[in-house]
Amino acid sequence: MAKPLLLYTSTTPNGYKVSTVLEELKAAYGTDVIDYDFEKIVLSTNRQKEPWFIALNPNGRIPVLVDRSHEPSPFAVFESAAILLYLVRKYDLEGRFTFPTGSDEESELLQWIFFAHGGIGPMQGQAHHFRYAAPEDIPYGKKRYTDETARLYGVLNIRLEGRDYLVGPGRGKLSIADLNAFPWVRLHQRAGIETLDGFPNVQAWLNRIAERPAVKAGLAIP
C-alpha cells in the first residue's frame, strides 16, 4: 500500500536534508502520523529532466516531495528548504523541530534556513563543481568557492559559540535550521576544507547531529 508521502531524491546534500527531517519526524511522532516512500533518481540518467518530472518541478532538480494524502489531489513541493517548511507545518504537531508562529525564534529559524539555502549550499556546490566536475582545471574557481565556504563556516562558528544548535533559547534545540545546513557541512572535505579544526563549534555541532539515530537513518536514503 502506498504511503502518504513520496520523496524523489538522490545521494546529495539537498536530498539528505529532506530524508533526515522525515526520519526525525517519524521517530518523534510515529508512522501513524507520518510515513513515506522514496524513489531514487539517478542524476546521470537525466530522469529529472523528463516531462513527468518537470511536471512536478519545472526546475528539474531533486528533491521533490509528493503529498499523496493532499485533498482533492496530490500536491508536489520542490526546493529542499520549502519541503522542510511544508513538513513541519503539517506534521510537527508539537513544534519539536520548529518554533511558535510569529515568535522571534521562528524569525531566527527562517534567517538561518535562508543563510544556508542561499549561502552554504550554492557556494559549497560550486566548490564541488570546480574540484570534481569542471572540464578544465580553474584554480581561481576552486579557491574562490572554497574560501567562501570557509567564510560561511566561520559565520556558523560564531553563531554556535556557547550553543548546541542554531536556534532556540539557551543552548538552542535541534530544528530544521540545523538539518538544512548539516548535510552540506558534513561534506566539507569535498569542498577543499580538509578539517574543521578552525571551526571547533561547527565540528562539535556536526558530531552532535551525526550521532542521532534518525539522522543516520535519513543518510541511508536512498
Concise description?
The protein is built from eight helices and four strands. With 222 residues, the protein is of the alpha+beta class.
Give the arrangement of secondary structure elements:
Layout: E1 5-9, H1 13-29, E2 36-40, H2 51-54, E3 64-67, E4 75-78, H3 80-91, H4 104-132, H5 139-159, H6 176-185, H7 200-210, H8 213-219
Parallel strand pairs: 1-2
Antiparallel strand pairs: 1-3, 3-4
Structural account:
- The structure is a single chain.
- By secondary structure, the chain is α+β, with helices and mostly antiparallel strands.
- It has eight helices and four strands; from the N terminus they run βαβαββαααααα.
- A four-stranded mixed beta sheet has the order 2-1-3-4, with helices on one face.
- α1 (13-29) crosses α6 (176-185), α1 (13-29) crosses α8 (213-219) and α4 runs parallel beside α6 (176-185).
- The radius of gyration is 18 Å and the shape is globular.
- 38% of the residues are buried.
Task: List key phrases describing it.
222 residues
Q: List the strand order in the largest sheet.
A: 2-1-3-4
Number of strands: 4
Beta fraction: 5-15%
**Radius of gyration, rounded?**
18 Å
